[in-house]
Amino acid sequence: MTIPTNQADSADTFLAAESGSEMARLIASLDWSRTPLGPIADWPHSLRTTVSLCLASNFPINIIWGPEHIQLYNDGYRILCGDKHPFSLGMDYRECWRSAWPAIGQPFERAVAGETSFLENQRMFLQRNGYLEETFFTFSLSPIRADGLVCGLFHPVTETTRTMLSERRTRALRDLTSSLAAAESADDVARLTIAALAQFEFDIPFVLLYAFDKAFGGYALTGRHGVAPAGAISPALLSAGSDSCWQVDRLSRSQAAVEISGLRAVLAAERCGPYDEAPDYALACPTRLQQDGHPRMLMMLGASARLPWDETYQEFQQLLLAAIDAAMDRIATQEQEKARIEALAAADRAKTLFFSNVSHEFRTPLTLMLGPLSDALAEPMREGQRERLQIADRNAHRLLRLVNSLLDFSRIEAGRAQATFSATDLTSLTAELASHFQSACAQAGLELAVDCAPLPEPVYVDRAMWEKIVLNLLSNAFKFTLEGGIKVALKVRGDGVELKVADSGVGIPQADAALVFDRFHRVEGQRGRSMEGSGIGLSLVKEMVALHGGAVRVRSADGKGSVFSVRLKFGTAHLPPDQIVEQPAQAGRWAGTASYLEEAVGWLDRNEPPSGPARDPAPAGAISARILLADDNADMRAYIQRILEKNGHTVTLVRNGREALEAIAAGPLPDLVLTDVMMPDTDGFTLLKTLRADQATRDMVVILLSARAGPEARVEGLAAGADDYMVKPFDARELVARIDGAINLSHQRRTSAAREAALQAEMKAEERMRELAARLQFTLDAAQIGDWDLNLLDDTSQRSPRHDQCFGYAEPLAHWGMADFIAHVHPDDRARARAAVDAAIAAHTGWDIECRVVWPDGSIHWVAVHGSLYHVDKVPTRAVGVILDITAHKQAEDELREASRRKDELLAMLAHELRNPLAPISAAAQLIGMAKLSDERLRHTSGVIARQVSHMTALIDDLLDVSRVTRGLVDIERTPQDVRSVVFHAIEQVRPLIEGKRHRLITDLAPDVGSVMGDQKRLVQIVSNLLNNSAKYTPDGGRITVRTELVGDEVELVVEDNGAGIAPDLQSAVFELFSQAERTPDRTQGGLGLGLALVKNLVELHGGTVSCHSAGAGMGSRFTVTLPRTSARAAAAAPLPLRPAAAGERGLKIMVVDDNIDAAEMLAIMLDAVGHQVVAEHNATNALRRAHDGESFDVAILDIGLPDLDGYELARRLRADSRSAGMVLVALTGYGQASDRDKGVAAGFDHYLVKPVSPSTLINLMSEMM
User: Within 10 Å of residue 964's Cβ, how many Cβ atoms?
Assistant: First the structure.
């Protein structure tokens, strides 16, 4: 690069290279003679070079020059100047950026003194947009020296204001959110907000928070920062009617932030924020949280006076306001939750008090019930009457136990339970209590094991409470243990005693294990003997154990049983002194034990029929039905069974929904299912859902029994699919009436459903018949099959339109009979058709006929007719059948036969054509082996072999080309091709044949014909095939003309001869595969009939057309090819001449690897003949051994289809070994697809040649390598 040294160059020359820069044009337009720099023409070379570099850069750069520090800058720096531009151009740098001098003054002075300065993210204030603006920059100041002196400064700059503000504001939002997470009240929100945002006054110069004051009816200031109290914008109180700048009315109604402007005038002389300038903008926002119809808080955030109040700034403040708003929402949610918990606690206390009062009130009527029942049972009575009173007595005692439990629980919760602890022989007491369940366990098939070891000292317990603890745990174990056993153990553990009640029952799910001691908690859907119970037994145990200063826990797994453990301490130190009684506890069983036992026995099956006299006969007219009753209470089952059987029903009893489903599956199906809602294992609702989901039971009548009263419970039951819902307690007569009504309705419903089902089945059958008929008709129409129905008695018929169309009638005929059918059959087939119909009628069978029919227009068509006969008293009365036009099928058969004939001709021609060159090749080979031949005769013999091999190769190439074209595998490489060059190449290929037959070749090639887009090889093949065809079928000494001309936008190429011509009947098939004129002994032109077929396909692939014309046999032929012309110019390419090694030139050392021994040897001889050293191997293993034994080769020619390793793998292994990695690898193969070439390149081949390869191609390739 040459740098001019003439300093008198004009400004145009200096700035011409940067003419696209706005700053370059501006610098060129200024009168610099009025500045200390002087005219541009007088600028020193160093300044011009520096300014040129500056203007060429997209990076913001400022050049500060001379003792006056004049600045010149580029387009990037111009944007940073704001409204100072263009006045800042040519201005003293110090004067221009005086507002930033506190930050940049020292770095500037150091740079002037010759020391480079670099500052990163430097905060400074610039007066560039009409106000003092807070900005951040990363920049450097580097001295520019000339003759060893600093003559200027190089000042690249990057503004980082946006990045730094974003980071600072992100910290503010993060700190605020983190602080507010600890807020527990609205006052906390205000305090933490002020504390967090006070650290970011450059972005939030002031914060005001006002909370709604219900007493005042407005808002009171609860938090502030950056502004004085009771100032112009921060009054202590804000009301809706005030004239405050905060627009309280609008804020109270708004759901979004409101922009407030004009604050600077309101603040006047008041100081607000970190700067001398007061803020002019703020964002005010109400909280979404309301209080008495007003926002609970108003929030105001000020905007910096030294930052642009743009959309980004406003979005940042809205995020801060949203964080405060979210904190207020969270506080409100916490306050609501706290209030809800307090309300629940109050409700819980009220409920406990209610239970206590109710329990007391229940005891009086229960006492009056139990006393008379006990007296009545002590007197003699009928057995049936006694059983009913026993049921009432058992359930009254059960009710008393439940009332006592509720009363105990309410006392404990209210803190009024009075326990009396006395020294007790806990071993004896526990063993005695457990022994009472021995009989019940035996009846249930359970094993009860009691292991109560003697204790070293008595344990202080409240005897009544301990009895309830043990009995509750045993009752619970008995209820949920269906097989196996129960074990009660009492052992010393540390400083106390431990009671364990273990069972092999159904266990407790993991999710419920921690809740079993909660009051009223029940495990839903758990298997057990009953679902009865209040859900307070285990919670009562927990509370009573706690009163003893002990602990209770459970260990359980679903389906694997449970272990309940109770631990108590020895001694009295853990007990209230005033509740300890130093007297031995009285022995004996607590009176309440009986109720626990009776309830447990009640859970067992009572399968025996009730004792007493036989039941009364059913009332007259009563309905007898099969009823399935599911209830987990044995007394309830027995009671309802007695009622229903008394009314003539048959009752089957089950304990739960699972057993009900098993009974239904076992059959027979019940007429009605009466089920309790709450049962173990499978409850009533699950049973109902299962029955309704099953097609076999979905219409079964189901009545639900439940203790849940009220319209909501009834609606829930009916919505679930129940036919009726009855609430316990119920009247026996109402139960019978509802069951009888439901059964009557069920019978009517079943009868109606049966009639409906029959009607539906009939309608479905009719619909199915119509559907089948439509489907059959669709099939016939789709297959173009006509159908017909012929009455043989009156010769009338019904036919589809397609039937008549098969005989050439577009519109249906008025009449069609057997005679009409025979009349339309072709005369040559008529007798056969008539005979087939007569034979079928005589033999009472059907017929199948294929015959020709004559249409009204005289055309002949083939039809296939199938007919079947229907008989009455063995007399054929009706024939039905179908007809199909098979003309196209018959034509296809004819074409198939013709194709078969052509195939046979092809095979014959192929055998003949391939034998022809084999004969001279064989003779030449024998001649070479017979004796010594002169060089002339040897050359002649070699020429015979070469010509015949070339002829065979051409035949095989034609076959391969036809195969590729017909399968669409030919790729056309479209490049501009000169038409004249294509014709000349084709003539050269066919010249030996033309000259051999002494034809006269005339060329008439238009000079302006131009080029066509196409594949040079395939275009030459088109023309050479046409010339070859003319040469073969023109007698010796004939005339062949090649002519080209431009016709519109197309090139027309004509090949014409005066040869044998083409008969008119053969011209239409001349371009078909294997098409040839008839061979005669005097017409031995040879060939396979592929050339013209290839021409047609290749021309069409190039977007052209080809046609043939001949006046007839002996009149010559003319073939015309038309191709689209292109305006692109063709590049000429000359073929490489055969170049053997020059004299004295050292040949290459070559290894040939081919499993075809003859091919390998011939290739070696040929290459050796032109001066190369050649070694032949016939498998990959030997080739690798030779290459790796130290023998060095320049080239390896590898066949791909080798027997041990293929050529690709052999190439990879040669490349992988350093001894053979530099060898040139040439693939020689019959696989020539693009994918094969790609595979060869990937394996490491340098060249890829497709067989057959001409000797000249291979020899020239070797020469290029030399």
Answer: 16
